[in-house]
Design brief:
With about 110 residues, the protein is mainly α. It has one domain. About 80% of the residues lie in helices and about 0% in strands. The chain has 4 helices and no strands. Helix 3 crosses helix 4. It is extended and about 50 Å long.
């Protein structure tokens, strides 16, 4: 029987899984880049102005947030009312985004040395 992981080990493992998931998504995007570009250009009024990477980032962010909100809402139903769930999710999403931005800043500061 494996010993239980402590909180830091769990966070590290989940962060690794998150990075792996993002890398896999981008791998799929890279393999089908022409298809993504074709679709993204069809969905806008001025196809010549499309920034494919931004389009894909916004689309993925929207999908991931929708899934995360659904799962969060289902998990929290026994504990919070609908309005409290929305507020808690907004705080959680804000903190997650802040953590990611802070991590990027740490990475770029570390690589500048």
């Amino acid at each position: 029987m494996e010993p239980m992981m402590d909180r830091d080990q769990i966070v590290k493992q989940l962060a690794g899984l998150e990075v792996d998931l993002i890398n896999r998504i981008w791998g799929c995007v890279a393999e089908e880049e022409d298809t993504f570009e074709f679709i993204s250009r069809q969905l806008v009024d001025k196809p010549e102005d499309v920034d494919l990477q931004n389009f894909i980032n916004h689309a993925l962010t929207g999908v991931l947030l929708a899934v995360a909100f659904f799962r969060f809402k289902e998990t929290m139903k026994p504990f919070l009312g609908p309005k409290e769930i929305e507020e808690a999710f907004m705080r959680m999403a804000h903190n997650k985004a802040k953590n990611v931005v802070d991590h990027w800043h740490e990475q770029s500061e570390g690589s500048a040395d």
